[in-house]
Amino acid sequence: MKSLEEYAALFEKLALTELTVVEGDQKICLKKQPAPVAPVFAAPGQTQAPVHATPAAEAGAKPSAAGNAQPAAPADAGRAARTGEVVRSPLLGVFYARVNGEARRLGEQVRKGDVLCTIEAMKMMNEVTAPADGVITEILATDGALVEYNQELFVIG
Questions:
Q1: CA 20, CA 28: separation in Å to the nearest integer?
Q2: What domains can be seen in the chain, in order of their start residue?
Q3: Residues 119, 55: contact at Cβ < 8 Å?
Q4: How far apart are CA 71 and CA 8, in angstroms?
Q5: pLDDT, tens digit, for every residue of 65-79?
Q6: Whole-structure pTM over 0.85, yes or no?
Q7: Which is higher by pLDDT, 11 or 64?
Q8: pLDDT greater than 50 at residue 82
Q9: What is the rounded distance in angstroms from the CA atom of residue 1 to the CA atom of residue 135?
Q10: Are residues 27 and 8 in contact, defined by beta-carbon separation less than 8 angstroms?
C-alpha cells in the first residue's frame, strides 16, 4: 500500500478495531475506540441492576413482562456445552472453507495435521490444521467472513 489513506480505507472496509503494519523501519498503528454505550436503568422501586445496551443485545433483546428490554443469551452460551477440541484462528483474516476445492462438512473424519481451512491475511494464505484425530462436530465460521485472532472456527470431537 502506498499511503495512509489506503490503510485507512482497508481499516474501514474490514471493520477492524486495530491494525498495525510494519514495513522496514516504518510502523503504522490504527485504532478505533468503541462507541460509548448509554446505560439503561430500571424504573424507581425496581431491584433490577442497570442493563447496558449493546448493538448485539439490542438486536436480540426481548421485552419482559415489566416492559424492560432483557438482553438475549450471548452467542457464546453454547461454549459450556461443547465437548471436543476447539480449533481457533491463529490470526486475523478472511476465512476460506474450501481446501483443494472442497469444504469440510459436519461429521467428517479428520486426522491430526489435516488442513481444515485457510485464512487470508495480507494476501498470504495460511493453513489451519486439525490438532487431533476426530470428527468435525461444529463449524463456527462462515466462508468468506472476517475472523478475529483466537476466534473459534471448528470443534473436533
A1: 6
A2: 39-72 (no CATH), 76-156 (2.40.50.100)
A3: no
A4: 33
A5: 444 444 444 444 455
A6: no
A7: 11
A8: yes
A9: 41
A10: no
